[in-house]
Amino acid sequence: MVDIQKLERYLPFLHNLVHHFDSIGDKPLSIQMTQKLGISWTSPLTLSPPSPSFLTDADLRGPKSFQIDNLCFELGIVQFFLWCNASRMGFTNLLQSATLLRRAAGVYQYLAYEFLPLLKDAQSFECPPEATIPVSYVMSLICLAESQIVAIMKAKEQKPADILLSKLHYGVVKYFDLAMIFYSTATKECKNFSPILMEYISCYKVLYELKSYKYMAEAVKAEGKTGNAIALLGKALNNEQISAGGTKSWQKVIKQDV
């Protein structure tokens, strides 16, 4: 919460500063004024380069630090982390939580569609994944998936039909499917990209696909088609065995639902 409050206070100041630098109109002067700012960010999505010693396992490599003396990239990174932290906050009010997640998705779409493309041509340095277009798309889709998950939780209060729950769960799967596509693009742009984000996406995709099949099987069973219901569950388990990956902790989450 403290980090979010600090970022919220910093963001208007940074917006104002960027606006004034843009109004200078003297590019060499702007570069001269910003080249020694010493702006540094640690990227949770990037592993530091492998150590020359025996400590080469990915799990033993910490996040990498980046120094980017560019105010516009600083503005983009601040917005990225502000909404990343905000969307992780817990809310007892499901409606409030869903609204916040959709707002976060909108901010990431703005970064991907409008803000970051303007900076791509001027990019002459290595930047963290958080400052790239594909990762902003990934985060937007994750927020939309999580908003759908909250909507499912809210819908369950009304005890809807199993077939509706199946469709809602499959909607989550489609968001994660798209996120995986953009993640694949991001790995081509970013060096030493940590696998932690992909583990989250792939494991929750499998989890909600299982849930979707489970509710579909319940709906089919209610129609007296027990054989079809068993076949659906068998297909779901087969897909889980093919698709499940990630760390043991993520696999445990999936197995608990199975």
From TrEMBL:
<protein>
    <submittedName>
        <fullName>Endosomal targeting BRO1-like domain-containing protein</fullName>
    </submittedName>
</protein>
<dbReference type="Pfam" id="PF03097">
    <property type="entry name" value="BRO1"/>
</dbReference>
<dbReference type="InterPro" id="IPR038499">
    <property type="entry name" value="BRO1_sf"/>
</dbReference>
<comment type="similarity">
    <text>Belongs to the BROX family.</text>
</comment>
<dbReference type="InterPro" id="IPR004328">
    <property type="entry name" value="BRO1_dom"/>
</dbReference>
<dbReference type="InterPro" id="IPR038898">
    <property type="entry name" value="BROX"/>
</dbReference>
<feature type="domain" description="BRO1">
    <location>
        <begin position="66"/>
        <end position="240"/>
    </location>
</feature>
